[in-house]
Design brief:
about 170 residues; alpha+beta; globular
């Protein structure tokens, strides 16, 4: 909802990179943004395009055992400006995992759903106008309690089992 989230078009500004997606329909916005990016050598731009086209041709998939670090190395993007300022931060933000252990199969889907989506707004990022608890945890807890459920915090769940009318949780209060 717009009341709790602000939407921004993708832009990256750092001492070594300036990348802004222009207001064009997808996928032209990503292509033009990359081509017009300042601080990225042409050879690196072509490597990035080749790497993304290969992921797209593979249906935005990668071998399950491949890491993001291995993909960056294999594509010649390891150590580049785009790796340092786009791919690695996006990997950390989306997967909450460092590139050395992050699954390239999962990251390929992230890239496909964002940079490769071809849908307006897919590359935008959202910034909270409020504390993060107000975005999902509080509304979810309110919804559950309004329907007669109980929400416990700081409680360990030992096991979850399907029951005839729902789920049974074995809890231990911490």
């Amino acid at each position: 909802p717009e009341s709790v989230l602000r939407r921004y078009r993708l832009f990256i500004e750092s001492p070594e990179l300036r990348l802004r997606l222009p207001n064009l329909p997808p996928p032209l916005d990503v292509a033009a943004g990359l081509l017009l990016a300042k601080g990225v050598p042409w050879r690196e731009k072509f490597r990035a395009v080749r790497a993304m086209r290969a992921l797209e041709a593979a249906g935005w998939s990668a071998p399950p055992e491949q890491t993001v670090a291995e993909w960056l190395h294999r594509t010649g993007l390891e150590g580049t400006v785009l790796a340092r300022r786009l791919y690695i931060p996006l990997c950390l933000a989306a997967l909450n995992t460092p590139r050395e252990t992050a699954s390239m199969a999962v990251f390929a889907r992230v890239l496909g759903d964002s940079l490769g989506a071809g849908e307006a707004g897919a590359t935008d990022y959202l910034v909270a106008n409020t504390d993060l608890t107000a975005l999902l945890p509080r509304p979810a807890a309110d919804w559950i309690t309004a329907r007669g459920g109980e929400v416990r915090t700081s409680t360990r769940v030992r096991s979850i089992a399907q029951h005839e009318n729902g789920w049974r949780l074995d809890l231990t209060d911490s």
